[in-house]
Specification:
The protein has 13 helices and 29 strands. The chain is of the alpha/beta class. Helix 8 packs parallel to helix 10 and helix 8 crosses helix 13.
Amino acid sequence: MTDAAARPPVPAQPAGPCSDGPPVDGAARPFRVVVVGDGMVGSRFAADLLATAGPDTEHRARPLRVTVLGDEGYEPYNRVLLSEVVAGRADIGALTLPSTGDARAEVHRGAPAIAIDRGSRTVLTSDGAFPYDAVVLATGSAARVPDVPGLGSGPGGALPAGVHALRTLDDAREIVAATANARRAVVIGAGVLGLEVACGLARRGLAVTVVHGGASPMDRQLGPDAGLAASRTLAGLGITVRTGARTREVVVSGIVGRGATVTGVVLVPDGGRPPRAAGPGGDGGPDHGATGTGPAPRDPAAGGRPATDPSGPTDEVPADLLVLACGTVPEATLARTAGLTVDRGVVVGHGLASPDDPDVYAIGDCAQPPEGGTGLIAQGWEQSRRLASLLAERLVDAASPLGHAGPDAAGTTGAAVPPPPEGRAHVRFTAAERPSMALRIALDVERAAWGPSGRDPREMRPAGVRGVPRVPSAASRERRPRVPAPTDQPSPPAAPTDVVRLKAAGLDVVAMGVCGARRAHDPSHRTLRLTDPDAGRHVEVVVAGGLLVGATVVGAPQIGADLTATYTRRIPVPADPAHLLLQPVAQAAAPASDPTHMPDRTTVCSCNGVSKGDIVASWREGARSTADIARATRATTGCGGCKDVVCGLADWLRKADPEQPGTASASSRADEPAPESVPVHG
């Protein structure tokens, strides 16, 4: 990955693929979409829109031109895996995301948007003005910096030396560089990011203390028992967890405002309770660590934030490195200055359009949809797919005004028709060898969702790169009756996007749906738990109406994978939900543990909706490595949890479908019948 990309100049008279010049030979003026943000959601949306719309020649109405404006000078990269960089388990170069490679897309990096002029319908940057027919805000969020004395003691009120947030590639680089000389680190915040960073720093040999105001770590996802199990595991990693504590002051040395350097933090009790420790600094017993029964007391005068007792006992924790993991704040300044409604984020309707302007959309962390934001990348990517389908419809809808979305902003106009199912590619083993251990373990994780026959009619898979619905051509549209556009209303239910996976070195946590210490009581929910804090293990499931509506799993990754498949695919649970808590001692008869019997539609990458069939198809088209498969399908570019499975499938394909000298290319073999799948035994 390059440190910076050159900013392509914008000429006074726009030209090139995104030109707004006069039509040539009577062609319609291009439909111009400006995407503000070149991160994980913005870059994904540009690719989704181009793939969904298809080539311009298929459209009778207007061709498509996309302009992407990126704040950072880097190529798009996977922010979700920045904590893996801190832990030393991923290289910075491996975070680069696939680019569109489409001539209709023009990308300007290092060119932050300054303003949206809704009157002239342009987006202003330091590089120039970009006209739009639709603008999509994908500005993401920024790290929240708490208002604590000492945090503004750097030059110009900036953070002092040794204090870092973790939101960008530069942040990750600086934290890794700081670990070379640091010995003691403090992480403020025990949410998902805080624990990932803490485990990563501990892996690098630092003594780590995590400070959290709640009763237990990850209390948004973990209840008291689950939090206790997580705390015991963290203690085993040499990490001290200080719950029920707030940071009163960041202690610095040197010249404030010029050369201040962090030396420690001062903690005070949260709501008058003494700070509790679990780990090397505490006894880790039942009265220490994650044993709280609910959130900290709230102070109405403080806006509902947990109360802090400044008169309580203080405790100074020394630190050479301080990492802020205190949550995020949506980047909504651009929308606010443009006169759009902003609450916590940019307010949008079910069609992801602003109620103030139907041609301005927002997706990802910066958006505030009616159902609320989860802060998870899966929700942003689901919004990307949905909005791509909506805008692609406008390209082929000749009856729609050229510069206005009208009521179609609801996102329910003329549902895109997916292409006919493609023939599934099959492979066969050429040698009677068992798959690698990594792949067999991964297949065991997936097996519970297949069912005994390997086919489940209830299985649901979100569309991935190869599953993005294509908008019908203008000719096919003429054969369909025009459906009046309804008002803004919810879209059909999609696969859940609220699965939280902790990517921490040494700590496995998965949570989904109804979970956490702050969950509301519902008499229709049946909850079952298996807790083993001494082993750092906890499994909790919540069932309602014959379906899994929530789960929390600590220290049992295989069970967590099984429950994730059950939850996201809405597979009915057993008559006795207790079976969800344990793997059977003796496995029932099941297909052999190899990908030959793995259904093509089995989801391998849940973040991107990539199936085994998609991976096999990419192999047939020339992908010969994990990196090639990632570029072709986007598998492994989300949370990274499917990397072992993808690597295993690549190994299997290498043995099952080896390249032979002189064989025809994938394209020339496209019309040949697929070889029959041959089972492998033993």
